[in-house]
Amino acid sequence: MTERDMLSGRLKDLSGRAYRNDYLTHTDFLGVSEQADFHAILASQGVQPSVHRLNGAPYVLWGGWEEAERCAAVFLPSYLDEDSFIEGELTAPQVVACLDCRPLDSRFADDLTHRDFLGALMNLGIERDQIGDILVDREAARAAIFVLADLAETVARDLTRVKHTSVTCSLIPPGECAIRPEFELREGSVASERVDAVISLVFRLARGKAQAYIDAERVFADGRTVTSAGQTLKPGTRVSVRGLGKFVYEGCVTETKKGRLFVRVRVYK
Questions:
Q1: 3-class DSSP assignment, residue 223
Q2: What pLDDT digit, counting tens, does each position of 164-190 carry?
Q3: pTM for the complete prediction?
């Protein structure tokens, strides 16, 4: 049985229970590639992208904030619509909680990264699918950590050290989280929306070097390994190049008279 088959079975079970018993159910956090599988499963069952309903149950993908990368698939009871669910989650979460993690003494804090916070959580024995986005304010050595709500108090109690820095964690309403990823906007012209062309633009590489990263399986689009330099990027695609960084492809802004495309990307700082 493949991972997609397992996810399909899980979705069928959760959506069926939500519809029959009229209560809220949800998956653990799904990564970008798993969310792609989620949508592929819906498509295979004839569910249109605009129809947020599976086996009779309304659903929403939710990760604790409006642009979350890692999200749980939440199946709603009849008395909740998507807007009401999100409004409630921002103030009194049932599914995704937010932890404000900060150093006990900022004067002696390490320069903490996403990897440092994630490593500290996994050292507590927490599985990756129980952890959502981790938004880091590196200047303050501080992070907003999104976790499944039923795990939040345990994490707040047990997470006391990140790298060599003693930290304290407190639960805050997700709607009060002020940390957001920082991006650098980049624009430029490319011959096409091929992934190798856009990577060359973003990271200022020769096309051959971009091809080498693809051949080495170090390029990922929406969580899936890119196997062809000719793959066309669509607006909203998240691209990561191991060793270089990641960006969100925003799409073509305009086309020049010579047929080149002027494109825009947001590069994670």
A1: coil
A2: 999 999 999 999 999 999 899 999 999
A3: 0.87
**What is the per-residue pLDDT across 210-242, written as a single tens digit (0 to 9) for each?**
999 999 999 999 888 999 999 999 999 999 999
Which 8-state DSSP code applies to residue 232? B
End-to-end CA distance of the chain: 39
Write the pLDDT tens digit of every residue in 100-149.
999 999 998 999 999 999 999 999 999 999 999 999 999 999 999 999 99
The continuous run of DSSP H or E covering 4 comes out as helix 3-21
Identify the sign of the CA torsion 172, 174, 175, 176: positive
Neighbours of 221 (CB within 10 A): 19
The class of domain 96-176 in CATH terms is: alpha beta
Other Cβ atoms less than 10 A from the Cβ of 229: the count is 18
Q: Which helix (H) or strand (E) holds 42?
A: helix 32-44
Architecture (CATH level 2) of domain 3-91: 2-Layer Sandwich (3.30)
What is the number of residues in the chain?
Answer: 269
The pair phi, psi for residue 204, each rounded to 5°, is 55, 55
Both tokens of 150, joined, read 């039923």
Query: Nearest 5°: phi and psi at 36?
Result: -65, -40
Average pLDDT over residues 89-108: 96
Q: Are 199 and 269 in contact (CB under 8 A)?
A: no
The CATH architecture annotation of domain 183-268 reads Roll (3.10)
DSSP E strand boundaries for 63-114? 71-75, 96-103
* Alpha-carbon distances of 41 from 15, 44, 62, rounded to whole Å: 13, 5, 18
- Angstrom distance (rounded) from CA 93 to CA 96: 6
Report the mean per-residue pLDDT for the chain. Answer: 95
Please report, for the chain, the start and end positions of each structural domain, with discontinuous segments joined by +. 3-91, 96-176, 183-268
